[in-house]
Amino acid sequence: MAGQGNIIYINGPVVKADHMEDFTVREMVMVGEKKLIGEVISLEKDRGTIQVYEETSGLRVGEKVSGTGRPLSVKLGPGIIGNIFDGIERPLSKIYDSGFKFIPEGIGLISIDESKLWDVEMLAKEGDILKPGDVFAKVQETSMVVHKVMVPPGISGRVVSVAKSGSYTIHDTLVVLEKDGMRNELKMYQEWPVRKPRPVAQRMPIEKLLVTGQRVIDTFFPLAKGGTAAIPGGFGTGKTITQHQLAKWSDADIIVYIGCGERGNEMTEVLEDFPKLKDPRTGNPLMDRTVLIANTSNMPVAAREASIYTGITIAEYFRDMGYNVAIMADSTSRWAEALREIAGRLEEMPAEEGYPAYLASRLAAFYERAGYVRNLNGTEGSITVIGAVSPAGGDFSEPVTQSTKRIVGAFLALDRELAHARHFPSINWLSSYSGYVPMLGDWFRQNVASDIMALRSKMLKILQEENKLMDIVKLVGEDVLPDDQRVILEIARIIKTGYLQQNAYHPQDSYVPLSRQYSMLKVIDRLYDRAYSCVRRGIPLSKIKDEALFSDIIMMKYNTSDEKPELFQELCDRIDRYYDSLESMYKEGAADEG
Amino acid sequence: MKVKYLKLDKAEGPLIVMNEVRDAVYDEIVEIEMADGEFRTGKVVQIDRDRVIIQVFQGTSGISLNDVSVSFTGKPMEIPLSREILGRVFNGTAMPIDGAGEIYSNNTYNINGRPMNPVARLYPRNYIQTGISSIDGLITLIRGQKLPIFSGDGLPHNQLAAQIVRQARISDEEAGKFAVVFAAMGIKHDEADFFRKVFEEAGVMDRVIMFLNLADDPVVERIITPRCALTAAEYLAFECDMHVLVIMTDITSYCEALREISSAREEVPSRKGYPGYLYSDLASLYERAGMLKGSKGSITQIPILTMPNDDITHPVPDLTGYITEGQIVLNRSLYQMGIYPPINVLPSLSRLMKDGIGKEYTREDHPDVANQVFSAYSRVQEIRALAQVIGEDELSETDKKYMEFGRQFEERFAKQDFEENRDINTTLDLMWELLTILPEQELTRIDPSLVKKYLRK
User: Fold this and answer.
1) Which of A10, A296, A344 is opposite residue B287, by nearest beta carbon?
2) Mean pLDDT of B51-67
3) Do residues A329 and A308 lie in contact, with contact meaning Cβ atoms separated by under 8 Å?
């Protein structure tokens, strides 16, 4: 029998109660007459401190706190994909269907749909020996996801009875396992405490690219399956659009999108857009592989703290099935602020900028749940974590950005200046980095082209060079530079406007496969080589810079398509023709003078 | 039966502390009667066994520890609402101050509201024509959006807000369904009078509801004012199907009041002494903008805030910008150059614009031409910086054209009379006209077919 406490203190989401001897730390509890959901965060003698995931307005001293005997957990089973949940996995669409346009309190613990019938295909047979993670049934959850029903961690045994394939709810028993005389009934769902990482057999090295279709990311600052990335940026720099683009186009099997302390309309936008958007690889609606966790900025702050864990636990569950999962957390700063707010109410000693001292370790523990792994059932799966960071005042030296930067593998710094110039995605190519470049080199060479890494370094070098030259240009103007430096500026301009800028709202440009990215790089590279060699021959830049040719290369992102790869060859041929004739003209000119 | 308590333990700043209180409810309203018969209200902000901390909206000045009587209502703050509120003026705690009597209604509403279920929201897509070129062309306002004005002391943010209210065109069949809710927090009497005059001149006074907490009114009351205003707005939008424009000014005073209470409660401060929950608190206001499925009304918010020292990284504008759907930033040097409205379009932004402009809403060329004007004007800034060093004469020909573009952009496009109302086609045509100054190959942001169709038309 779980314990019962007595409320003695209320301060926003923090409630204290006495008679709490029977409770455990991190136990999920029901608070007050409305049965608000909360979690025990500390115990001292008979007193316990509880964070409440719902609005505490109207609560009084003396109301009861009852325990549930288990830590804050989520139900994992069919019905997750395509759905939208709050921070503790309560289905918002179901709440809406029951007539709540505004979030009510005390709706209790509801989760995935318990009455829906699923078509189950049984895979286990009587007499099979099953161990944790083994798949004993499967369900076509959506057009894109086959839900593999697994034996929960910690349970194993011999199958003594199996249900027939057919329609079942998540509460029906599908398989009974026996071990040492003990029987375990397996259903379509399992429960798992959100703060505890699900077990895996082995972590594997990272070596595969997470293809995002975003040129600046894939080519210059690649993300890896199983890797981690942070996207910091002040307001208005396009964090959310970048996260949405990644959620739409990255080649993960499952997307978990956590709207953590962000705008309500942004979640609505995803809900309205994703069912209409088609996955570029399968043609199915993108919503069929997406899960949304929404704790908007005006929803209770304690549930914001939990939403990140709910999201990653769902991600781990699908990883265990052998899927590549990408999880977007927008924004981890709001999560950190929720930590700070609760820590403040607990009167904990603050560290930097009022954040609790354990900020960095909590962040690290969250990002560490990413990885490329071999699962208990022998399949391989991965979780890629991409966290947005919203630094106060756009200043990257603040604690959340700095603590995150230490942990993540890729850092995509969004730049306010670029955003003001409407250069999107506003990823700054000088301050961003990806630690996955060395690990992904082989993958790129095998799957894209042998020279892509060399091209990448060459383009980055041009951009670096341009940055140095711009310091001079800002002082004295462009005209005084020698032509061999001005050609760098021209090519850098093409890379910036023609390649790095990508229009999320243009049908041709929103998603660009690697093959097209590579072709575009080749065209720019050809232009650079030919233009540079002309400069070395003393041909003036005004002749080298052919307005029509340059502008067509900048516009190639709109004018070329995957269906017509020959257009790139035509562009290259045009470059060759133009510079061939230019060179021969000057050769004659030089000969004449001689 | 109400229990009255006759003794306070402590009174300090905005807070009173009482002991031996039984059955206090978190967040409930308490009524405080003073010796001279004056009534004050407060709210329970912390309960520790029988010790209760109460935040008094009118402050504790004049309160004695013994000569008071405090009664607990058991309910959070609620206000009565009916259609009769249209045209009325209230103080910061929703008490009528226009002498036209109380609001009688069977329905009372909790001023704290509740978070909208994201599933129940309708994504805003209809644009509002404000008749102001910088806004319509480059920072388009969408019905159901929250779009703050980031201003500074002495800048004409009030004029701009007034001009938006006057010109925000609502089509004729919907004219009867339009209302303005005005929440003043710590602004001066003459500012409040200015708005009242503007509303009267625009002939919309009978559709305006004003909640006034002026500079000399109690500071803590400021926490309540916007919540009353938004509750009224929600009532009109979601129960009476009206399109409500909410103007809240000045958010900076609101945040300062919040800071004052926070420091009185000895909470751990975060940046610049503001409480760590400032973000969540502001969100609980701003997120009340929007539209709901199944109801015809909408709430559009234009909060106004003055950036202390014109610093956009100050916590108030910074956190606001993270919550709102864009911002309109006013700029002092533009104003000093005689440009009204002095909107600096580069740091300004409307996040919902992308879905509310273009073919089906404004005109097909709008997205591209706006994008081009933004990037050209941003280039102007770079070139101006260069011209300051090397002199304008030394600039390249293209750069000189950009300089000209910048001048004309500010003088002809951004600058506009307080009375001038430009429709969207005029604004868009003007943008094309400005772009003719630039060489055509510079127009890389516009689809070539649109250039052919609209340039030099």
Assistant:
1) A296
2) 90
3) yes
Nearest-CA distance A289 → chain B (Å): 18
Burial class (CB in 10 A: 0-12, 13-18, 19+), A187: middle
Q: Report the length, in residues, of chain A.
A: 594
Residues 397-426 of B with CB under 8 A from A: none
Grade residue A590 by pLDDT with cuts at 50, 70 and 90: low
Rounded Cα distance between A340 and A365, Å, is 17
Share above pLDDT 90 across residues of chain B, in percent, rounded to a whole number: 72
First-to-last alpha carbon distance for chain B, in angstroms, is 78
Q: Is the confidence at residue A516, as pLDDT, over 90?
A: yes
Rounded to a whole number, what is the distance in Å from the CA of B314 to chain A's nearest CA?
7
Q: What is the predicted ipTM?
A: 0.89
Find, among B6, B252, B210, B5, the residue nearest to B94 by Cα.
Answer: B210
Selection from A312, A309, A275 nearest residue A290 by Cα? A275
A145 CB contacts (<8 Å, ≥6 apart)? Answer: A81, A253, A254, A288, A289, A318, A323
Cross-chain residue pair A555–B290, CB shorter than 8 Å: no
B402, B383 in Cβ contact below 8 A?
Answer: yes
Residue A21 tokens read as 């001897």
Q: What is the pTM of this model?
A: 0.93
Choose between A588 and A482: higher pLDDT: A482
Tell me the shortest Cα–Cα distance from A454 to chain B, in angstroms.
28
* A276 in reach of chain B (CB within 8 A): no
Residue B178 backbone dihedrals phi, psi, to 5 degrees = -115, 135
Least confident residue range of A253-262, B60-69, B252-261? B60-69
Q: In which region does residue A492 sit, left (phi positive, over 0), alpha (psi from -120 to 50) or beta (all else)?
A: alpha
Instruction: Give the CB-side neighbour count of residue B50, counting CA atoms within 13 A.
Output: 7
**Which tens digit of pLDDT belongs to each residue from A180-237?**
999 999 999 999 999 999 999 999 999 999 999 999 999 999 999 999 999 999 888 9
Q: What is the residue whose two structure tokens read 């820590």?
A: A343
Q: Does residue B447 belong to the interface with chain A, where contact is any CB pair within 8 Å?
A: yes
Q: Once rounded to an integer, what is the mean pLDDT over residues A485-501? A: 95
Task: Choose the most confident range, by mean pLDDT, from A163-172, A349-358, B388-397.
Answer: A163-172
- Give the pLDDT band of residue A456 (cuts 50, 70, 90): very high
Q: Do B119 and A58 touch (CB under 8 A)?
A: no
Write out residues 505-534 of A within 8 Å (CB-CB) of B: 505
Q: Considering chain A, what is the average pLDDT of its residues?
A: 93
Calpha distance B89→B82 (Å, rounded): 14
| Strand ranges inside B278-374, DSSP E | 291-292, 298-306, 326-329, 349-350
Of A10, A93, A393, nearest to B26 by CB-CB distance is A10
Contact with chain A for residue B153, Cβ under 8 A: no
**Token pair 């580069």 in the structure block, residue:** B346
Find all residues with CB under 8 Å of A565, minimum gap 6, and list them. Answer: A515, A516, A519
CA A445 to chain centre: 25
Give yes or no for residue B10 having a pLDDT over 70. yes
Mutation choice for A interface testing from B22, B25, B121, B316 by most A CBs within 10 A: B121
First to last CA, chain A: 104
Q: Is A200 on the interface with B (CB under 8 A)?
A: no
B275 close contact with A: CB closer than 8 A: yes
- Segment B424-448 shows an average pLDDT of 92
* Phi/psi at A164 (5° precision): -75, 155
pLDDT tens digits for range B358-371: 988 899 999 999 99
Please determine, for residue B78, whether its predicted confidence score (pLDDT) is greater than 60: yes
Residues of A in contact with B292 (CB under 8 A): 101
